[in-house]
Each structure stands twice: as structure tokens, then as C-alpha cells.
């Protein structure tokens, strides 16, 4: 029997190359190995965007389109919407009753995001308690594996602690402590050299046109010490080279690295090669996107089927939990 995997993405903006290379491509590989549940976690988007929820509807539909266009197959995995499966909210409520406040206050990203995000009031229970909702998302499917990067291990450990506490208080064998399925997520730099992020306004989006990608990559920073074409550069200092390592072939990557060091190639020519390779990579995705956009009923059918499958599994778990907590 295949082990079960659960992962989700928050529709707080349009998906970009970082989401694609860092998570989606890995999800596509995992669906051939595990019983995968992939979720658009739209309630999570409200933890920081509660004051302006209007764009979330468009973001989540575009996210679903990109999920399928990138290669997720609804015949191989379950694709669903968090808010369509009300059992997530029920388990979140019940787990919040037993989760110590100190566990939430020590989550690394809690204070980090409050420091980084200055234009939003994050002093809410929803923001403090989102790790409990995240735990409910995972535990309700009794997923044994969760694909995460090293930086997300503290979040998963909190989920394990909550599951352990529930089992100690009520039952043995209902909730599974999920293990990290560590994935090598490439660091995808944005146009300014920082991590590619919607909030930094430095992203190349999956919905961008070839012309938009060409324009964006041409403005991307390179080795800051290389002022002229005749200057020798250090590819390791260039975010463009980091993208080559993801989207270009090994031979091309080795060529641009050597040519940069000897000044045999200028930054514009280096970027042209990268632009070509990114466009080649995304062309099948764009074609599939157009098919789904042209046939909205297909997307609706996939989502409705996924929601039903997810709800059936979630209800099985909730029936056991209600009984254990004497709520049935």
C-alpha cells in the first residue's frame, strides 16, 4: 500500500518560478510514488489577508489551473480546496483546545513575519494559531509524509507535538505523527537577487507571457562587480547563473559559467540563453493553461471530484476523533 502524502499552497498571489521549481515539480514526481493529497489552503490566505480577501478567489482558481498545467494528474492524486472540506475547521477548533499557547509563540516565523510585514496587522489569533490549522490539514488525512524544506521542519515538529498530545489525552492510534519528506528545493532567486517572492515584487509568474519574461530577465541583476562586457565575472555572485542551474542544461550551465569568468560572453547574451530555456520549460504548461481556461467546466469537475474524495477521508478521521473526545 502506498504511503500518504499531504501538501498545500496558500493562494496569496499568483504562482511564480520559485513555487514551480521549489514545490510543484516535486509534487508531480511524488504522485507516482505516494497516495498524494494536494490542497489549495485558502483559509490560510486569510491569516494575513483578512482585510482584503477579494483577490483570493482569483488566486486560488489560477493556482488550481497551474497545479494541473504543471503535471498534477487528478487520476493519480487528490486535488482539493481546503474551505470545501469543513472538517478541517472542525479539527482546527478541537486541536486549538489542547494546544498550549507557548508552543505557538515559539514558532520561528511568528515573530519573523511580524517584523518583516509592516503594512498589515498580524496581532490576531488567526495568525498566531495558523500552525494549528496547518496541523489539522495534515493530521486529518493521517498523512505519514509531508514534503518540506529544512526551514519548515519546526512547523512539522509542532504538528507532531500536537498529535502526540492528542494521543496522550484521548486515544492511541488515531492521529499519526507525520515524518518530513525532505526535498531538495532549489533556491530560486528573484529579479533583485533576493529569494523570489510575491511580496518582494521580484517574481517571474507562471502566467507571464514570453514577452514579459524576456523583459523581466533582461532587467535582472548579475555580478555587481562586472560593469562592462570585457570585465571578468564571478557566476556564483550572479542570480542569473542560479537560474541557469535550474532551467538550463548542464552543458549550457558550464558554458555560461566558464564564459563569464573569461569575459567571453556578456550578461545580455547570458540572459538570452536563460530566457530561451525558461520559455521552453514553460511552453507545455502555458498550452495546458489555455486548455483549462478555455474549458472552465473541466476544472470544476476535477475540483468537485477532489473535494468529495478529500471530504470522505477527512470524515473518517473526524468520526474517530469525535468518539475519542466523547462528542459523538
Question: What is the overall shape?
Answer: globular
The DSSP helix count reads 14
State the total count of DSSP E strands.
5
SSE pattern? EHEHHEHHHHHEHEHHHHH
The CATH topology of the largest domain is what?
Rossmann fold
Task: List the strand order in the largest sheet.
Answer: 1-2-3
Q: Over the alpha carbons, how many angstroms does the gyration radius reach?
A: 22 Å
Overview of the structural elements:
With 328 residues, the chain is mostly helical. It has 2 domains: 4-188 and 296-324, Rossmann fold (3-Layer(aba) Sandwich); 208-289, Tyrosyl-Transfer RNA Synthetase. It has helices at residues 17-30, 42-49, 56-69, 87-96, 101-105, 108-116, 125-128, 130-139, 153-169, 210-218, 239-247, 250-261, 267-294, 296-324; strands at residues 4-9, 35-40, 77-81, 145-148, 179-182. Strands 1-2-3 form a 3-stranded parallel sheet. It has a two-stranded parallel ribbon with strand order 4-5. The protein starts with a strand and ends with a helix. The mean pLDDT is 93.
Descriptive terms for the model:
328 residues, mainly alpha, Rossmann fold, Tyrosyl-Transfer RNA Synthetase, 3-stranded parallel beta sheet, two-stranded parallel ribbon, 14 helices, 5 strands, 54% helix, globular
What order do the helices and strands come in, and which of them pair?
Layout: E1 4-9, H1 17-30, E2 35-40, H2 42-49, H3 56-69, E3 77-81, H4 87-96, H5 101-105, H6 108-116, H7 125-128, H8 130-139, E4 145-148, H9 153-169, E5 179-182, H10 210-218, H11 239-247, H12 250-261, H13 267-294, H14 296-324
Amino acid at each position: 500500500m502506498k504511503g500518504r502524502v499531504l501538501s498545500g499552497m496558500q493562494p496569496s498571489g499568483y504562482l511564480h518560478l520559485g513555487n514551480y521549481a521549489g514545490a510543484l515539480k516535486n509534487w508531480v514526481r511524488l504522485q507516482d510514488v505516494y497516495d498524494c493529497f494536494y490542497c489549495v489552503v485558502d483559509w490560510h490566505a486569510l491569516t494575513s489577508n483578512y482585510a482584503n480577501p477579494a483577490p483570493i478567489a482569483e488566486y486560488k482558481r489560477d493556482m488550481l489551473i497551474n497545479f494541473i498545467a504543471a503535471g498534477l494528474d487528478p487520476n493519480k492524486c487528490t486535488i482539493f480546496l481546503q474551505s470545501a472540506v469543513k472538517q478541517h475547521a472542525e479539527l482546527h477548533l478541537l486541536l486549538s483546545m489542547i494546544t498550549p499557547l507557548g508552543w505557538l509563540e515559539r514558532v520561528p516565523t511568528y515573530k519573523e513575519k511580524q517584523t518583516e510585514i509592516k503594512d498589515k496587522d498580524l496581532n490576531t489569533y488567526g495568525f498566531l494559531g495558523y500552525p494549528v490549522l496547518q496541523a489539522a490539514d495534515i493530521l486529518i488525512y493521517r498523512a505519514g509524509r509531508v514534503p518540506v524544506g529544512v526551514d519548515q521542519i519546526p512547523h512539522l515538529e509542532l504538528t507532531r507535538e500536537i498529535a502526540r498530545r492528542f494521543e496522550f489525552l484521548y486515544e492511541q492510534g488515531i492521529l499519526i505523527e507525520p515524518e518530513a519528506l525532505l526535498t531538495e528545493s532549489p533556491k530560486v532567486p528573484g529579479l533583485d537577487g533576493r529569494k523570489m517572492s510575491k511580496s518582494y515584487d521580484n517574481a517571474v509568474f507562471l502566467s507571464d507571457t514570453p514577452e514579459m519574461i524576456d523583459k523581466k530577465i533582461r532587467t535582472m541583476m548579475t555580478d555587481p562587480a562586472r560593469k562592462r562586457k570585457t570585465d571578468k565575472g564571478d557566476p556564483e555572485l550572479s542570480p542569473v547563473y542560479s537560474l541557469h542551474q535550474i532551467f538550463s542544461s548542464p552543458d549550457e550551465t558550464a558554458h555560461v559559467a566558464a564564459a563569464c569568468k573569461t569575459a567571453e560572453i556578456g550578461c545580455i547574451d547570458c540572459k538570452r540563453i536563460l530566457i530561451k530555456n525558461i520559455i521552453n520549460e514553460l511552453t507545455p504548461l502555458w498550452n495546458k493553461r489555455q486548455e483549462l481556461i478555455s474549458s472552465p467546466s473541466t476544472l470544476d469537475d476535477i475540483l468537485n471530484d477532489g473535494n468529495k474524495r478529500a471530504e470522505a477521508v477527512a470524515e473518517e478521521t473526524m468520526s474517530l476523533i469525535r468518539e475519542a473526545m466523547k462528542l459523538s
